Fold this protein.
Amino acid sequence: MFRLFPEELVNRWMDERTARLFQEEASALPGLVLNEREEADLKLLAAGAYSPLRGFMEQDDYLSVLARCRLADGSVWPLPITLAVASEKIQELPSYGPVALHGKSGELLGCLFLTRIYRRNVREEARLVYGTEDRRHPGVASLFQEEEYLAGGKVLVLRRAENYWSLPWEPAEARKTFKELGWKKVVGFQTRNPIHRAHEYLQKTAMEMVDGLFLHPLVGATKEDDLPPEIRLRCYRVLLENYYPRDRVLLGVFPAAMRYAGPREAVFHALVRKNYGCTHMIIGRDHAGAGEYYRPEEAQDFCEKFGGELGITIIRFDNAFYCRKCGQMATARTCPHPQDLRLSLSGTRIRELLEKGEMLPAEFTRPEVAEILRDYYLHIRQYTNMRRGTQTPQDTQDTHVQEKPSG
């Protein structure tokens, strides 16, 4: 039996009166500047996406999460949600009390009620969270660029108008829409890449079991070679418009940064989607992976270790591919044919085709999506050649880029 919205959401937004008083007094408070990942986490803490967290982790929770993927009270939580502090900044901060939080451009974001500053072990954090200290891993590389001290405490956040391509990004928005649509069973799908036919196969198979699909792409900071979110969202929109029932899919955005923490991040993504109102979550092979740091099924197996504690049903799938003999998408569970009849392009091969201006095979992705991706890569090639002074007539003739969406 599934219960819609089984838990209350944390709310750390300031009310109007508190916000007015805080803004009047903030200039007299010590301050910290947040990086892109921390700023995204701050907003998501305020909106309840990270429920039951009410702020940046204190030492007991931080150490417990590293050691056993649980908060100090025993609740499942796999990733540290932290606020870094430079050692030279510590003397400017109180040992206890309010601290103003600012964005990189100086805007006032909210307040941290500091309870303690503590030292982290970056190498241990890398080993336990990412399973490696290899700085070629994108999550580890980011971690080693951060400061060695952390500030813990609850937060209150100024509510600002956010326009993420006019799509819902707060859990309360998604829950409200699910209720209005009458959806009692909702499957979530996390993505940071354009959807190809294998993704479509997984989603539509899952949709046979539930009332609706919550397509929930991550639009925060990602690796440099990942596509920008506005390009990905164009792909999602054209795909939903042409190939999905419009009354059974909700497109939202998840403005968090990508950690690339594999199994731990898969559990994190599942817990977050539960907060958004999902009852089911698709976890594919190598979910939130990077390169070959994790086994293909490791994220799925890790999610299943926690069983019912997650509060959301995990739907796991084998690797999907297009079988030329079957004439359709399939997995090894349903297709008896050999590997040479199965089309499953790697991310590297996809980029190679697109960078050459070639179209992706129709068996791999829908033609409307392939066209958007081809246009984007041709634009990048033209720009690169112009910078190098090697632009060719073909570059100019072939390139036509669709207008970037507002927001």
Q: What stands out?
A: The longest strand covers residues 108-119. Residues 171-314 form a domain with the Rossmann fold fold (CATH 3.40.50.620). The radius of gyration is 22 Å.
